[in-house]
């Protein structure tokens, strides 16, 4: 295999392989699965739970539409539940990037052991990284199958005694196309996921102190949650946000990805923006190759067989290989991308921003620009670069720092950030 192809495959699968290798070691903490909480036999696209009522019932963002017990497992064979954790799947109200009400699915996880720290049990709204575009990629499904590549990071938080809420984001699991990397939609989904967890009666999380954590696509979601929290969700007791590998400026990210090994991620974002903003009319820019790729990728999951193959088959391609004209050159596309560019509003809570300095997917320069923009507006930001990390290893290297940052915020410790060094 060509060295560049090996590098592509390594980065796409690094976290997935790590999770699979450690799952067996963690099965010792699992218990026999009760019959009444067996994981769904059908993926979301075939499961009526994920289909919201039409019209949506009256309510507010974060209201729970329906819920049911579920299994959180790291056992991909027997689906034995991870011990000491209660789990629910929820369908809750959120909003689209244009402000329309929508239903989003997710998972709420609460340790069985009573919280022994000060105050109420903390809640982390965990924003996942890139999954793909298909409903079967939804974390609320993969977490019941022992096939979620971030399950060990979720466990890391649960082991602190924290509750964890994981949104599927708009269009993963629920009907409609996933609005991949549309920051406003993702940020609201993360905040409303926290609200839904607090409003789930059996979870016992009302009034919990909240933290937000996410990397890569999750970094976008976490960054937008940080910017939106004060105006959009002032009812949440948000203590801090940890965001890593943040795609803050998708125009800059697209310019970097065009012709790179990871150009498939840019095509996924184009599909996401077309779903969020139908007036963009992506299909009108595509040639036959582009339409074939769109048909192939709209249900793709990165951890399935077709995901890595699609990444490899599109590696080093350019926008011009799939279009008759470049949509990113048009005022309409530029305007919508700029609406979802981070940095225009200072987060109202302390933020830890992590960035792998050798990141081959998310350019460090645009991440540094975000840090400078936030700092210039008076935000409390702690920025840390990881000199020898690329995108996948950056997720691993930043985990300890992110967790420590949130633990300190939940403990009420002050933080000054390092904006003066920016």
From TrEMBL:
Pro residues: compositionally biased ranges: 40-58
Signal peptide positions (record): 1-32
Tagged with keyword Membrane: no
Family matches, as InterPro entries: AB_hydrolase_fold, Lipase_secreted
Region of interest (Disordered), residue spans: 31-62
Keyword Signal: yes
GO terms under biological process: lipid catabolic process
Keywords, comma-separated and alphabetical: Signal
One GO MF term attached to the UniProt entry: triacylglycerol lipase activity
Domain of life of the source: Bacteria
Name the record gives this protein: Triacylglycerol lipase
Species this protein is from: Actinomadura montaniterrae
